[in-house]
């Protein structure tokens, strides 16, 4: 579940690994090519804290990785948090992040409760 993470790069790495299990032809080099970035830069993006994709490249990546709209919004929120230097803004973004995480946990509990109730019936 992506909402367990606050580092958007970890979410992306995990999703790539998950998709590679299903599609062995999906490589980092292929993804970089689809994004229109050099594979060395794409590698730096994942391995260096201060290297980021621009918003257009990130959007293409999350579409390639098949994230839904809510997940895409969360990833962009995490990116904004990661890039922010202003404490007041970081605090504001962290509140929004925690609200998303809390909502997803509540929704997951409700879904589990509904399944249990249906099983009981």
Architecture blueprint of SSEs:
Layout: H1 8-22, H2 28-35, H3 39-47, H4 55-64, H5 69-83, H6 87-120
Account of the 3D structure:
The protein is an all-alpha fold. Helix content is 75%, strand content 0%. It has helices spanning 8-22, 28-35, 39-47, 55-64, 69-83, 87-120. Helix 2 (28-35) crosses helix 3 and helix 5 runs antiparallel to helix 6 (87-120). The chain is globular.
Low-confidence stretches: none
For the biggest sheet, the summary is:
none
Rough outline:
globular
The strand count comes to 0
Q: Gyration radius, to the nearest Å?
A: 17 Å
Helix and strand composition category:
mainly alpha
Q: What is the string of helix and strand elements?
A: HHHHHH
- The percent range for strand residues is under 5%
DSSP helix fraction = over 70%
- Distance separating the two termini: 28 Å
Mean pLDDT: 89
Number of helical elements: 6
In short:
The protein has 121 residues and is an all-alpha fold. It is 75% helix and 0% strand.
Entry keywords:
single chain, mainly alpha, 121 residues, 75% helix, 0% strand
